[in-house]
Structures
1.
Amino acid sequence: MRSRPVAFVLAGTLGVLYHALLRRPILTWGATEAEAASRLPGDELLEGADGVATRAIGIDAPAAAVWPWLVQMGPSPRGGAYTYDWIENLLGLDMHSVDRVLPDFQHPQVGDTIGYGSNRMRVERVEPHRALASRSEDGNWVWAFVLDEHSGRTRLISRNRFRFPTLAARIGMLAMEPASLVMERKMLHGIRQRAERLALATAAQPAVSS
């Protein structure tokens, strides 16, 4: 019976160490202090969130080359999520990341819905080449992308905001945070690679004379 108190103490110690040393880097991977602390488009969709993750990446391409990959994200026939498809498909999400721009999904509108398994996300904010934000049907999750372009380079910021209606949800999310970093880091790199290729291809196209 002594093993049970020891296990509780060990779990508590690991939890304290995670909060003190690892949780902030996991939740703010790639983001500057200013980006992590700033109020971004989409934050208004879930005020007083119980959890916030702000991750970011620099892209050597203008926002116009990043935007197409964001707006077409989602399960087939959409463009996937540019991460580990095999992991997502183990969860039945039907994700198939593409390397081409899909014209049918380039014009998102407020009110559009996209299904992610049992979750359905409703597009709530669209600012072309600047911001795209969606909210889950139950209102407990908001996912926003923000593009900040300077001198032809773009900072892509991904912000997730969560509300945890139960203790079980709160505990479960703590376990999911490291896994979400693995998936989202791959996604951000995938978007960067595609956007930079698109920018190079666009720059290589001959100008059309009038």
2.
Amino acid sequence: MATPGDPFQGGLRPPFTHYGLSGAYDEMFAPDCSPRSPYKALYDRLLELPPEELHRRQQSADQSFLHQGITFTVYGNDEGTERVFPYDLLPCILTSAEWAVVEAGLKQRITALNLFLKDIYSEGRILADRRVPGELIHTCRHYRREMRGVKVPRDIYISVIGTDLVRLDDGRFAVLEDNLRVPSGVSYMLANRQVMKKVFPGLFSGHGVRPIENYGQLLLETLRALAPAGRPDPTIVVLTPGVFNSAYFEHTFLARIMGIELVEGRDLLVHDGIVYMRTTAGLRRVDVIYRRVDDDFIDPLAFRQDSNLGVAGLFNAYRAGNVALANTIGTGIADDKAVYAYVPEIIRYYLAEDPVLSNVETYLLSDDAQRSYVLAHLDELVVKAVGESGGYGMLIGPHSTAAERDEFRRRIIADPRNYIAQPTLALSRAPCFVDGRVEARHVDLRPYVLYGEKISIVPGGLTRVALQRGSLVVNSSQGGGSKDTWVLSEC
């Protein structure tokens, strides 16, 4: 119901005429339809700007992305073309108090997950104490028996992390999933900020937004901290699968901002347990590899023999302590979506603390009772394959067809360990500039965490947007985009 002074009383004012409020938490508007405090200046500015000016600024942003070659590739698309990463003009804004909770929760979570990985590959105390089922770990396809007993630099298994957060109906953040293998998207976070400063310079400078531009330096410091002993000036490289990888732009971007070499597997070799890089001046020892190649393909002598993306003998060099890898091989256990359900217990076990950030309710389909419930309510739930990412291998029940539900029912019955289910969340919605007007779209947030000598988190992250009206899928591979994320210094 409208209230006195309600900006929507008597009809929504342009450019909000088609905004539309729903039951989901709205980032910009409070339940009484007034703009939330952090968004007040943006709201007032949008009332002043004519739609054609917003359109001009969106075009300017799109051109900037195009000229910088900020692209991604969708696998399985018949066209097989690279696309400019979709960027939304309007920022998502967090207060300093909100960010303080997110930061504390992420540091707690990453600390516990790192201790969990160390334990799993050594003593296995949490399994012996039956706080996490051993079968759950040993049936995980990302569990690497080869890593048992391997000494990891600084005992840090996960150095680069991207954690997906969603905002619940009451405004609290919760963790939707952890990405601990080769998390992507940080280049888009940095590019979004660069473009925002160009298209909305006055608005940005007047908000007191906390900076994120030091991410490249923080990442470089994190990787340096992993270097083998006796290597005070380590050589660090980014290992990419190559130009046909969907995130190749990001690989080149990160190598450039860190001032280090971007290499493919064919550029490296192992001799006498030491990794070398081929250069025009001869062989050069490599000390730290920020890998963007999955475990299976990292070393054809240790894992998939048909891989031509990795480096033969790399795992032996790693096991000998002559080279560091970020992230460590075998970290995929901790972002298995079934193991995710146990993260609150993992935090309590290793840290003797309650989680700062809650999990989303999760059904484990290897449990008979939970599986029966899910199969009877497929039209209400979201079903996910435990090892997939990018929005693949997922059923969104309320938006699915009967044929799709039947197909997932067959998959679950055939391999229940491979799936989990969660309630269909009403992701929070934020203002987006779409087709010449401001409309609400569902969003989530992926902050990026670095773990070297200490845990560092740049204030913000990648706000991912489901640009299709009504869609809950924010992944770029499924039609999503992104926007800049502002964490205010004071608010």
3.
Amino acid sequence: MAINFPETLRQDLWSAIETLRASALPVRWVKAEAMHLTLKFLGAVAADRHDQLADALQHAARASRPVTVTVAELGAFPDARRPRVLWAGVSPEPGLELLQHQVEQAFAPLGFPPEGRPFRPHLTLGRVERGARAAAFRDLEDLLGRVAFEQTVTIDAVDLMRSTPTRGGSDYQTVSSGRLS
């Protein structure tokens, strides 16, 4: 379950992180077209459950209203000294948190229990390569702080996505969409 941001925002963000991408950081960068905000990760799901999942998606979407969010501030999980993921933050607006909660509630009866950790809305920009040494990220905090990016958009849909792993990263396809009421 994800929110796909407008193409212009993703391309602008991709351009804004050019200096990071051009650095020698051992990171596998997410392509601009694959950047999205995950509301709920479902894992491997049988194709014959598509209709059931699409119905749950519609239920969650109808229970939520469009919400305006700001994408800004870059960071790293768990932190810049030992990163695993580089991200762009998404403002934790109450309407976005309610949407994520509606998704959790709609999918719980289908065997997808609510996430055990707090919702931290973000767009994944890159994942650190396995075996990367901490020394490679000595200047990461400074590099992240130099990137100036801020855009505000209104979210009016939520998507059920299919992820297919490929050599160049995952390929994402929208399977079903629900309009926020």
